[in-house]
Amino acid sequence: MRALLLLLLSVCLLSCGADNNVNAPAEPPLQTGAEQLSQYLPMLAGKRVGVLVNQTSMLGQQHLVDVLLAQQINIVSIFAPEHGFRGDHDAGATVKSGVDSKTGLPLLSLYGANKKPSAEQMQKLDVVIFDIQDVGVRYYTYISSMHYMMQAAAEHGVSMLVLDRPNPNGAYVDGPVLDLQFQSFVGMHPIPLLHGMTVGELAQMIKGEGWIPQADKLQLNVVPLSGYQRNLPYSLPVKPSPNLPNDQAIALYPSLGFFEATPLSVGRGTAFPFQVIGYDKFSTGNFQFMPVSTPGAALSPPLMDKVLLGEDLRQVKAQGLNLEYLLRWHALFKAQDEVFFNSAGFMDKLAGTDQLRLQIEQGLTESEIRAGWQEALQHFRLQRKPYLLYP
């Protein structure tokens, strides 16, 4: 009898455990700030609204602009960053102002000669929305456009609403912290190359640290992500720019972006940009490819129409910042008595300092270079802590 009771008790415990597992609440699905309409539509009612958006500003299959217009929100103007409102402009190509063909709304460029909205443009607005997918790398210019919009909003008494989106490189804080002597449109803030923050968190830090004039006057609202953790992998549903077409390119971008200051190709003008490295005269590998003029790389990609040899990185496990590629190719160029950093000034802007280039040229190892970053990185981690919104 006792054995039977023990058996029944065991069965009960197992079934209870099974029921508990079945009924356990599922992890909440990730929602972007834009998808949480109830959180911000009341802020827009009766207001004159500007939007700084591009092709990534999607709620499922609908663009934010279309959703807001359907909700009778008064959108006055659309501001476009690098690559344009539809995301079809080449890197560095001038984005022209005009009229959006679908909505008939004024389309105002913030890339080219005019990177900051004018007083006339801002005076027509009560609130401006920033909703653009970033990739978490300091030299990716969408956060620079956000900076200038925040500055204009502060100067003209316009409130700023940031609809947050995940950082696909959010697990990493790495690289040199920008020295303000090297501030440029590819590096506006004293943050590491990989800062590990979302655009919403970074906007709060820009305001809180006074990195824009009259920061205290800016009325900033952030609609946070729901169900987000920065260490979880996130695959972007829309490519953020023509030459970052997939997760692998986005993961390699922190490491390969520096090659834009060298004579080498990183695959612009191929089907796999930022996933290969190659050169026409000598190489560290035997992978063969040829850049050609293509949509997104029509502005004469480096070494166009030449057969290149190099490295195929499409299957490597890319994580954070890897200096190995730079060091290996620099050593090869040095052995051939060729100039590697043929655009030294641009390299220093990308790095946010001249120290990385000088250390590579001096022959320092990766571990020696990284050692020089650690104190500044630790300071940054403490500095950013009050502005973090997610675990």
TrEMBL record:
Peptidoglycan beta-N-acetylmuramidase NamZ C-terminal domain mapped to chain residues: 252-390
InterPro entries according to UniProt: NamZ (IPR008302), NamZ_C (IPR048503), NamZ_N (IPR048502)
Alphabetical keyword list: Signal
Protein name in UniProt: DUF1343 domain-containing protein
The Peptidoglycan beta-N-acetylmuramidase NamZ N-terminal domain, residue ranges: 49-247
Pfam families given in the database record: NamZ_C, NamZ_N
Source organism: Rheinheimera baltica
Cleaved signal peptide residues: 1-18
